[in-house]
Amino acid sequence: MVGIVLISHSGPLAAEVALLAAQLGGAGVPLAAAGGAEDGGLGTSPDLVAAAIEEVDRGDGVILIPDLGSSVLTARLFEEERVVIADVPFVEGAIAAAVSAGADSPLEAVLAAAEEARTFRKL
Amino acid sequence: MVGIVLISHSGPLAAEVALLAAQLGGAGVPLAAAGGAEDGGLGTSPDLVAAAIEEVDRGDGVILIPDLGSSVLTARLFEEERVVIADVPFVEGAIAAAVSAGADSPLEAVLAAAEEARTFRKL
Amino acid sequence: MATGFEMDTAFFAAWIEESARSVAAGKERLTDLDAAIGDADHGSNLDRGFTAVVRALAVKEPDTPAALLTVVGTTLIRKVGGASGPLYGTAFREMGRALGDLGDTAEVSPGELCAALEAGLAGVRRLGSAAEGDKTMVDALAPAVRALRRALEEGSEPREAAAAAAAAAREGAEATIPMRARRGRASYLGERSVGHEDPGAASTALILTALHTVAAR
Amino acid sequence: MATGFEMDTAFFAAWIEESARSVAAGKERLTDLDAAIGDADHGSNLDRGFTAVVRALAVKEPDTPAALLTVVGTTLIRKVGGASGPLYGTAFREMGRALGDLGDTAEVSPGELCAALEAGLAGVRRLGSAAEGDKTMVDALAPAVRALRRALEEGSEPREAAAAAAAAAREGAEATIPMRARRGRASYLGERSVGHEDPGAASTALILTALHTVAAR
Ligand SMILES: Nc1ncnc2c1ncn2[C@@H]1O[C@H](COP(=O)(O)OP(=O)(O)O)[C@@H](O)[C@H]1O
Ligand SMILES: Nc1ncnc2c1ncn2[C@@H]1O[C@H](COP(=O)(O)OP(=O)(O)O)[C@@H](O)[C@H]1O
Ligand SMILES: [Mg+2]
Ligand SMILES: [Mg+2]
Ligand SMILES: [Mg+2]
Ligand SMILES: [Mg+2]
């Protein structure tokens, strides 16, 4: 299964979105939140991101979903062939990615699903 | 100034996004989080939403930003001419709306700014 | 519900009490259905809502069916906490409004009840933008209201008409199993929503069955 | 930095220490700049990062300029916590890598330092996708590196060349005031970002000024 890492300046924000996405994606989806600085304050910690990537990596690739600012730049430090950044709405993209990953889709499909979240209508 | 209400099933999620949006929009933006059920658990409370709308209403209109599910339906209960729902990415739309509201834009412009957040690129 | 059969405030109170009982008894099943394609709270949401409704009616029973249904709707909106709260709440409030528009009388004819249910369905559709086939409560409510209208037009007895409505709601709920959700939280699941009964359609079937139970007394 | 002027590991250590001192002294100003168009943490972010860098170098000073710059970059990436962490971290790591590629010698010529700074700038540009005019640290770093290159090509003395680079960085930072941010957190502010100096450009000016200070000793 494709792993998902949610990266935010804010620990609680990443954690809450991870909860929501896990609920919709199913308990089996490898999903981790890497929010906040190491000390729990606002900020982004590459060490937390590295640990989160390791935690969710099942060999099928990992999608990094950043919110904004330093999350995006920190995510970029980890880009490789099988670790890709999804430039998608943070909440909606995370949900779509989790659902797609939960259906055991390959990395490219999970990424595409997350990107489609841009056009999903709520009303 | 246009008021902004963030509606989510999750109290912490709405509160964190409100913090982020307030930081970027400026302290003057009338912004309230209406997340979770009345008892603090998961859910949506129309009473909390009503109180939030009242809190941020400065006479220039109010934008409701729901995340998904019951938040959207609860928001719809409050739609009127000057209380409008923004069907936008929760985090990115809230930030864009807060910045636009902070620049004292009228309701239509704040709504348009929030909708543009759909196409904003992070990379 | 042929001519001559009139429903007073007590009838509506009994319907709501029976619904509350049925939701409480079905709470776990509703939550299990919601666990499959939602967030596992539909049973507790509705039970919380109907418990609050019963309490509100006990404090002061409204004196017309219209007033009673309005209290039911308002209480559900405030207390359910999930998407079904605004939806059922709107359904009952629109029923109350429809009966109020018809004169807010103390007694309601079967035809008036049917018109009120049609107004309730319209309210749900407007609020949730769901069409039949979207795998929501509309898939139980719409066929139930249609069955009731048809039975009345064909001159069925009230209890027969209510039985037809309840059966249509149950069939409608079951028919949601192969559907793919296109509204609400479950719509995020896409294909994964296929193969499960929609919890809101299941609870609608309970509420329509409660109507039949009370009409058959 | 004409021929004959060589920079050893101690020179680079002195540059970093002077940068750390300067960042600590300017902490409040950097944070105030970030308060206007960001989240009011640039001063404390960088101060935290450089404090950690100084501590890391005190524990065990690397024995080549390339190794030292790599430690600086890695530590900044891990400790800064804001967008400037990955950016400055990448800048210093790319400098270290460039010097390593040139042979990882114990002494670096002015031309080699300039090439390393060019590699650092390229790394920042690649990571952050910022061009000049986007109101970021690139608006201070790019003109500084260009000024250094030009001065060396014109045969300036090392301290003169460093002075030109530092002046260009300060001017570049000031020139960000009327710009509208198109990268990073400030870009979300749109028009509201106009009229304020970019904090990252301001800290880049401090770091380049520190280079001049040390070269002039
Ligand atoms: N837009 C909608 N239109 C009609 N019915 C809907 C809509 N959204 C959700 N529902 C109904 O609500 C039910 C879920 O209710 P509930 O679990 O109480 O709320 P939530 O999804 O917020 O947890 C669904 O099974 C579906 O029948
Ligand atoms: N994409 C980018 N490219 C270049 N520089 C950037 C970029 N994003 C941010 N910066 C720089 O980083 C500075 C902000 O750093 P800092 O406040 O430490 O991080 P954060 O914005 O995460 O709080 C900005 O002033 C800008 O100079
Ligand atoms: Mg539910
Ligand atoms: Mg729910
Ligand atoms: Mg900052
Ligand atoms: Mg920050």
Automatic annotation (TrEMBL), chains A, B:
<feature type="domain" description="PTS EIIA type-4">
    <location>
        <begin position="1"/>
        <end position="123"/>
    </location>
</feature>
<dbReference type="GO" id="GO:0047324">
    <property type="term" value="F:phosphoenolpyruvate-glycerone phosphotransferase activity"/>
</dbReference>
<dbReference type="GO" id="GO:0016020">
    <property type="term" value="C:membrane"/>
</dbReference>
<dbReference type="InterPro" id="IPR039643">
    <property type="entry name" value="DhaM"/>
</dbReference>
<keyword id="KW-0808">Transferase</keyword>
<protein>
    <submittedName>
        <fullName>PTS hybrid protein</fullName>
    </submittedName>
</protein>
<dbReference type="GO" id="GO:0009401">
    <property type="term" value="P:phosphoenolpyruvate-dependent sugar phosphotransferase system"/>
</dbReference>
<dbReference type="Pfam" id="PF03610">
    <property type="entry name" value="EIIA-man"/>
</dbReference>
<dbReference type="GO" id="GO:0019563">
    <property type="term" value="P:glycerol catabolic process"/>
</dbReference>
<dbReference type="InterPro" id="IPR036662">
    <property type="entry name" value="PTS_EIIA_man-typ_sf"/>
</dbReference>
<dbReference type="InterPro" id="IPR004701">
    <property type="entry name" value="PTS_EIIA_man-typ"/>
</dbReference>
UniProtKB/TrEMBL annotation, chains C, D:
<protein>
    <submittedName>
        <fullName>Dihydroxyacetone kinase-like protein</fullName>
        <ecNumber>2.7.1.-</ecNumber>
    </submittedName>
</protein>
<dbReference type="InterPro" id="IPR004007">
    <property type="entry name" value="DhaL_dom"/>
</dbReference>
<keyword id="KW-0418">Kinase</keyword>
<dbReference type="GO" id="GO:0005829">
    <property type="term" value="C:cytosol"/>
</dbReference>
<dbReference type="InterPro" id="IPR036117">
    <property type="entry name" value="DhaL_dom_sf"/>
</dbReference>
<dbReference type="GO" id="GO:0004371">
    <property type="term" value="F:glycerone kinase activity"/>
</dbReference>
<dbReference type="InterPro" id="IPR050861">
    <property type="entry name" value="Dihydroxyacetone_Kinase"/>
</dbReference>
<dbReference type="Pfam" id="PF02734">
    <property type="entry name" value="Dak2"/>
</dbReference>
<feature type="domain" description="DhaL">
    <location>
        <begin position="10"/>
        <end position="213"/>
    </location>
</feature>
<keyword id="KW-0808">Transferase</keyword>
<dbReference type="GO" id="GO:0019563">
    <property type="term" value="P:glycerol catabolic process"/>
</dbReference>
<dbReference type="InterPro" id="IPR012737">
    <property type="entry name" value="DhaK_L_YcgS"/>
</dbReference>
